[in-house]
Design goal:
Length: about 180
């Protein structure tokens, strides 16, 4: 599966098979104490890839090139390397048919419910991890209303309502736990 930029997901899986790391085990240098283990899942979809429960990333986005190059070389990407070098890192490379279904909530991490009031009058409740971003909320809204215009704002209900205009801000940073978010055109 090659992307428009020529990135070939098949080559990642072929390389992993050759090196015997298809399960994606990337170990740091051995340490005398019993190391703890961290597991990361990198899922390749037809429309990109996701890391753990994170958002969809594009294969042809230049910002993702260093990450993908580490994977291609069967190395642990820098963003997944633990601070404690004695920690073992296991990376599972997973291929899924079809497009990324959207947001995945990891209930083993801090999470919250957010009530969404959409411009069409629909109210729904969605669950997010604290590390999900405003961009993830927009993705959830866009996925639930395919074909709808995307030129809307998200606001936190309050007096006055606060505009959520930083897409990289996390749920925790924006203090959105158990809040009401409004879609406004």
């Amino acid at each position: 599966m090659a992307s428009q930029s020529g990135f070939d997901v098949d080559s990642i899986f072929d390389q992993a098979r050759e090196l015997g790391t298809l399960e994606g085990r990337f170990d740091p240098p051995s340490a005398p104490q019993q190391p703890k283990t961290v597991v990361h899942n990198i899922i390749f979809w037809s429309d990109g890839f996701s890391v753990n429960d994170g958002p969809l990333r594009q294969l042809d986005d230049p910002e993702n090139a260093p990450f993908l190059e580490f994977i291609r070389k069967s190395d642990c990407p820098r963003e997944l390397q633990p601070e404690d070098r004695s920690t073992e890192v296991h990376i599972n490379l997973i291929r899924r048919d079809g497009k990324c279904p959207g947001l995945v909530v990891d209930k083993s991490l801090p999470w919250t419910s957010i009530q969404l009031k959409l411009a069409d009058g629909t109210c729904m409740t969605a669950e997010f991890n604290y590390r999900h971003t405003i961009s993830d909320i927009r993705t959830f809204v866009d996925t639930s209303r395919p074909g709808s215009p995307s030129n809307y704002q998200l606001l936190v209900m309050g007096r006055p309502p606060k505009i959520l205009n930083d897409p990289t801000q996390t749920i925790e940073e924006a203090d959105l736990a158990r809040s009401v978010v409004i879609q406004k055109f």
